[in-house]
Design a protein that fits this description.
Belongs to the universal stress protein A family. It comes from Flavobacterium xueshanense. This is Nucleotide-binding universal stress protein, UspA family. With about 270 residues, the chain is α/β, with parallel strands linked by helices. The protein has two domains: about 140 residues, 3-Layer(aba) Sandwich (Rossmann fold); about 120 residues, HUPs (Rossmann fold). Helix content is about 40%, strand content about 20%. It has a ten-stranded mixed sheet, sandwiched between helices. Helix 4 runs parallel beside helix 5. It is elongated. The two termini are about 20 Å apart.
Length: about 270
């Protein structure tokens, strides 16, 4: 993870994401790409060819670049390589196209704490990026402060399809020399005996070079509450999940994990596409 993309709408939530990106960048000598997307009204887009409001368009660009420059001068970014870009494109499309063009390794985005995913960029676009991004997406809910990402939870059914994205999680864990808590959530609708669950997890983890890990089985009413409650129990710094592009945070444990987990937990969540 050497190239980190941080989309920003200049909000507090986007700044929280940038602070988290800075922590990762300093640990792993990464380059940060700051991206501000200008989604102009239709009449403004017409002006690009008609010429009527070109000065107004240029003002948007000028102000955006000035704000990006101020952000780059924040003390928490000292010593880091920061590239800033203003781009005319819809937020969701712009993030994914920039990602492919610049060979980004990790996207870090902000979101509301417990109020859900609601606003532009820090809203439905976050959920779309989580669902469709080919690279890992780290969603930050609040000011990370001095978070060290030392205690990371990875919730899964530990099936064969999880193996490839799990390798990326292992890379992230090694950056922070973190302890990884692997957890299988058992519910009334997705029940496994302790013997079966332990066997599945042990068979899965033996293929990876990872030292600081522990295996857990946690019972709860449903998958979402199980992950959230287990993470609180061990005071996790970060929750890791795998996603399917077709349905977002869904369809592992032979069931479905809704976006409620990303919406409602205050802990950072990192997702890896299957």
């Amino acid at each position: 993870m050497k190239r980190i993309l941080v989309p920003t709408d200049f909000s507090e939530h986007a700044e929280n994401a940038l602070k988290a990106a800075a922590i990762i960048a300093k640990k792993n000598k990464c380059e940060i790409f700051l991206l501000h997307l200008l989604e102009l009204p239709n009449q403004m887009s017409d002006a690009m060819t008609g010429g009527a409001s070109i000065p107004e368009v240029m003002l948007f660009i000028k102000k955006a670049n000035e704000t990006l420059q101020k952000i780059k001068e924040q003390p928490f970014l000292n010593g880091l390589s920061i590239n800033a870009t203003v781009q005319f494109e819809k937020a969701f499309d712009g993030i994914l196209s920039f990602n492919k063009k610049n060979k980004i390794d990790l996207i870090v985005m902000g979101s509301h704490g417990t109020s859900g995913i609601e606003e532009i960029l820090i809203g439905s676009n976050t959920e779309k990026v989580v669902r469709l991004s080919e690279v890992p997406v780290l969603v930050i809910k609040k000011d990370v402060g001095e978070i060290k990402f030392k205690n990371i939870v990875f919730a899964s059914d530990f099936s064969t399809e999880i193996k490839k994205p799990f390798k990326k999680l292992v890379e992230f864990v090694k950056i922070f020399d973190a302890n990884l808590s692997l957890v299988m959530i058992c519910t009334p609708n997705s029940f496994k005996t302790t013997v079966t669950a332990e066997k599945t997890m042990k068979e899965f983890i033996k293929n990876y070079d990872i030292k600081n890990y522990s295996l857990h089985i946690f019972n709860d009413a449903n998958i979402e509450s199980g992950i959230s409650n287990f993470s609180k129990t061990i005071d996790a710094d970060l929750i890791g999940l795998c996603t399917h592009g077709r349905t977002g945070l869904a369809h592992f444990f032979n069931g479905s994990i809704s976006e409620d987990l990303v919406n409602h937990t205050t802990k950072p969540v990192i997702t890896f596409k299957i």
